[in-house]
Amino acid sequence: MIQPVRRAAYRLYTHRLRAQLAGTSLPRHVAMVMDGNRRWARQMGFDNPAVGHRYGAEHIHEVLGWCAEIGIRHVTLFVASVDNMRKRASDEVENLMRMIEQVVAEPLLGPANPWQLHLAGRADVLPDSTRHALKLAEDATAERGAGFHLTVAVGCDGREEIVSAVRSLLEQEAQAGATLDDVAQRLTADAIAAHLYTGGQPDPDLVIRTSGERRLSGFLLWQAAYSELYFCDVYWPGFRKIDFLRALRSYSARSRRIGA
């Protein structure tokens, strides 16, 4: 009897949170640091904490459904940093990459899926199979016209991304015959932003990080300069719709002061 009562209470609370958001300002673009997969698996009693990556990957599509339902058309997900790829045990990285291929990339190919995939990060640090699966999904979804954009950030480091963007800008200018002094005189933030991994995409209005950690860990350092930040204590696989709606409620209650 307890479970039906809990489910009814959950539905009622979800409806209440959703009603509170009616008529409020919602983020156009939400970025998420999906942290806590392994800790969630340990909490749930799994012998192998890497199992949490599968549950976390599967949960992505449910969360994307919440975003589409509420009208959030730009989502960026932080899957793995360059440090994650280099420093974690090889079997864990292999498992994570397999989850990206099978659970993240492949379902996006379904004709009923509205999301257009964009990739952010260093493709050269990914295994060939992962790079191929993501590129296949990116190409296959390129013409989708529903207006839902999913950016998967894998092999990312914010400082390295900024260095790479500046280098790319300088190389482009040099090929056009510009001198270093010319570039210095005309250099703008927008010019650098165009060479970031996310060039052409809007900056996130809201960044959500799960697991209770209160830092960005190098995620979207440039793009999140004026983003609202929301830190949630639950681990990513246990991130519920009410947690998501609470984050949106917190965002809607804030007075955004860009640059202040």
UniProtKB/TrEMBL annotation:
Q: Which cofactor does it need?
A: Mg(2+)
Q: Which residues form the active site?
A: 35, 84 (proton acceptor)
**Which free-text remark accompanies the cofactor?**
Binds 2 magnesium ions per subunit.
**Entries under CDD domains matching the protein:** Cis_IPPS
Q: Which Gene3D superfamilies match?
A: Decaprenyl diphosphate synthase-like
Keyword Magnesium, does the record have it?
yes
Keyword Acetylation on this protein? Answer: no
Under Gene Ontology molecular function, one entry of this record is: magnesium ion binding
Entry's Gene Ontology cellular component terms: plasma membrane
Q: Which keywords accompany this UniProt record?
A: Magnesium, Metal-binding, Transferase
Q: What is its EC number?
A: 2.5.1.-
Q: Name one Pfam family in it.
A: Prenyltransf
The positions annotated for binding substrate are: 36-40, 53, 81-83, 88, 209, 215-217
Amino acids binding Mg(2+): 35, 228
Q: What does this protein do?
A: Catalyzes the condensation of isopentenyl diphosphate (IPP) with allylic pyrophosphates generating different type of terpenoids.
Please give the subunit comment from the record.
Homodimer.
Q: Which family does it belong to?
A: Belongs to the UPP synthase family. Z-FPP synthase subfamily.
User: What's the protein name?
Assistant: Isoprenyl transferase
What organism is listed for this UniProt entry? Micromonospora rhizosphaerae
